[in-house]
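Sequence only, no structure available. Ideas?
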Amino acid sequence: MAKAYQVDPAHSSITFTVKHMMISKVKGEFKEFEIKANGDPSNLSDANVKVTIQAASIDTNNADRDNHLRSGDFFNAEEHPHILFQSTSFRSKGDGEFELTGDLTIRGTTRQETFEVEYEGSAKDPWGNMKYAFSGEGSLNREDYGLTWNQALEAGGVLVDKKVKFEFELQFTEAEQ
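Reply:
I predicted one. Tokens follow.
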């Protein structure tokens, strides 16, 4: 039976990694997000997921870099405060693995993206609430979303890679009715 679920932000994370100067990786996360889902835990093929991320909540553990990422060179968080994802399909690959496809909107540009998702299981917490956990990953080309700022390096290559890898660890609970 389909039910409504919400993410537990205290036990969830959305993180990313991007190459810097073509030699090292910078990691970061989005600190503020909301995820609502509807579906039947025993049959996720009809699940519907909506993700809203606060673009200004980006955190790479460097205030100057974070402010640059919030600026017009990247997310333009003042004019585009939200990163949105609306699922269009949740396809089982077997053994608790899925492909989650949907429309991702960053900085006013919407494109279809697919993420690999694994159902980690469910358990009842000490207070009697059922929890459901998922992990996942994917990558995208940031330039497809208008995040094109970069600088050429003297030795060749660029300061910031186009490819951004995402990972998420999500724990859901049934939504309050």
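The chain has a mean pLDDT of 88.
Hope that gets you unstuck.
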